[in-house]
Amino acid sequence: MFQLGTFRTGYAQNGKIEAAEELFEKMPEHSVVSWNAMIAAYVQNGRIASARKIFNRIPEQDVISWAAMIAGYAQHGQGEEALSLFAQMQRAGVKPSQSTFTSVLNACASLAALEQGKQIQTHSIKTGFGLDSFVGNSLITMYAKCRSVEDVSQAFDNMGTRDIVSWNAMIAGYVQNQRIEDARKVFDKMPEKNLVSWTAMIAGYAQTGNGEEALKLFVRMLWESMKPNQSTFTVVLSACANLATLKQGRQIQAQVIKRGFENDVFVGNSLITMYGKCGSEETFHVFDKMPERDVVSWNAMLAGYAQQGRGKEAFQLFEQMKKTGTIPNEITFVGILSACSHAGLVDQGWHYFETMSRDYHITPGPRHYACMVDLLGRSGFLDQAKDFINKMPVEPDEVVWGALLGACRIHTNVDLAKCAAEHLFELEPQNAGNYVLLSNIYAVVGKWDDVRRVRAMMKDRGLKKEPGCSWMEVNNTLHTFLTGSTIHPQTKEIYATLEELSRQMKDLGYIPDTNFVLHDVEMEQKEHILFHHSEKLAIAFGLINMPAGTPIHIMKNLRVCGDCHTATKFISKIVKRQIIVRDSNRFHHFNDGFCSCGDYW
């Protein structure tokens, strides 16, 4: 026991593995305890190959030797080696321990090896561990990662004893498989909840697009005197970011400060992202005040600049990042290339794309190629974008073809759009957005027979178009608007406001661009549809309910159409208000008849 303490506590835990090696080799003889201690020391320091050499030298391995080596493989992403060694252990006639089963089940989880996991469960039952809570918890996690939800439930139901880890594993398992309602049922049934339970459930809502429920649950958590930690703040701030609820984000930042996490780098990164997605200048204040920054901090700022279309500021930040010694990674270049794309800076985009591999030895991935296709396509170089795709060293994926299709919509290139769409229909046949984009391109050029053909394809495949939706936060309440919707309590006032704005806009020279009404209907009906797009309804609501002079913040799930963009410029001039719109691509800051994007988006 003295030797074990010497190796693991005195040396290995302090990273002095060489000293442990030297002392071990000087020992006149080795007990199985000392052999096992060296395996554990190597595993703890990530030296798995060295651990295996020690394992192979042991004259007679005991169950701890096998368990330590299998755990080392499982913990360091070498699941196949863990399973292979487990099979070797069985052939050697060594009975697995509880920890062996948990390690090898974790290996199955990492590999999504469902059938092998089931075999190991059977073996655990035969060796008397069928009702063990640790093994049961590992089974739940394994089945969840293998997407076998029914087995998750069965493993939980068959447990002899359930602890709080079991309940939390069930929540996490359901969340991983998008079964958020089932996760909530488990959460509500828990005899006792801890911080992990609350955080897992809040994360589940945030990750599945249920940001409002995530915020409600966070408030309830505070009321029940449960103290959030860094992980809790990170997930709840991500919910605020996705909803762009600026006021609630500020309230959560106040909680961050109150709880003493304002200097935590993970929380700081989440605050940068949240304020960036809300279009708030406060993101710069958070970044400047961070006592410590990692590459994620810089990447979050670059992403914010990209969404704002502020290419030059993104370049300056990238140079500042390099001066601090922070090494850019793959995500960094996604951010800088996106900034080039949103600002139409083609030459700079090529420069950074080449810099990535030449100076930082980063092999471009699908997202980098998609950024370049987007940059070239948006800038009107569609043939060059297609040629770029043809010369890619890897097979283009749906993100790359999607970028080309989006560019074809901007520039109304029907032939290339058809080519891109055909690839997309093959790669992701259930993505309704691709069909809608192609249909819209046909509609713009008046090819109504092709429009009907594409819409018939959608119907045959059971696909539905995602409706245009805008939302905004007023008095801590989210108000949502669908195009042409009449269900809001203030519908009459909203429509009356729009009628008055329409009159004033036309007096100033506004002409509705009916090319953005993608239906084969009469001109008068087209104008009616056009002026009741969701963002216009949201703007009218904001004008009615927010104090004069207050900026109006609106979020939209789709790209702002050209007519709404033009109309919002007119409205900002008429009402003398700043109107900030975040669509699916970027931010637009409208002020006094102009937009920050310079009509390039």
Task: Describe the 3D structure.
With 601 residues, this protein is mainly α. It has helices at residues 2-11, 17-26, 32-44, 48-57, 63-75, 79-91, 98-111, 114-126, 133-145, 149-157, 164-176, 180-189, 195-207, 211-223, 230-243, 246-258, 265-277, 282-289, 295-308, 311-323, 330-343, 346-360, 366-378, 382-390, 398-411, 414-427, 432-444, 448-460, 491-507, 523-530, 534-545, 562-575, and strands at residues 469-474, 477-482, 552-556, 579-582, 587-591, 594-595. Helix 32 (562-575) links the parallel strand 3 and strand 4. Helix 4 (48-57) runs antiparallel to helix 5 (63-75), helix 14 (211-223) runs antiparallel to helix 15 (230-243) and helix 17 (265-277) packs antiparallel against helix 18.
